[in-house]
Write a structure and sequence with these properties.
about 30% helix; disordered C terminus; Type_ISP_LLaBIII_C; Type ISP restriction-modification enzyme LLaBIII C-terminal specificity domain-containing protein
Amino acid sequence: MQFYIAPLFLYNYNTGQRTETPTPNFTKKFYKEYLDTLSSKSTPEDVLNYIYAVLYCPQYRKTYIEFLETDFPSVSMAKKERMFYKYTVIGKRLAERHTVPKDEEIREEFKFKGDIGNFVVSKIKLPTETEHRLSIISMEGRRSSFQRRNNKTILR
């Protein structure tokens, strides 16, 4: 297996010293045809986060699996600016989660309705692609279901 590295920024070492200001590693054609068309100024990190989100999209992976295994992935840029920035936010969150050091813990806060009591989780039923629910069965056999509605997690 061969690996390639494409740095996000390039530094000029012509003088033997690294320049303080890095140059984004994008072609002029990419700037002209895409980045310059966005109304607000996008950063190279925004582009990286967008690409990261697209590459982790289940539909993209399913459609292009054969190319992902043998060639460089081709990522189409969003035609609508709103969609570009939506994916940028998702990609940034994914990248942050995927690069958390192992000794750090990812914490998410959940608010529950009603009395959930104290119980130990012994079995979890993961949701399918179409479900937005995580079912938990406790040691006592009590079945609970966590469901997302309006950005709130509800215990049923």
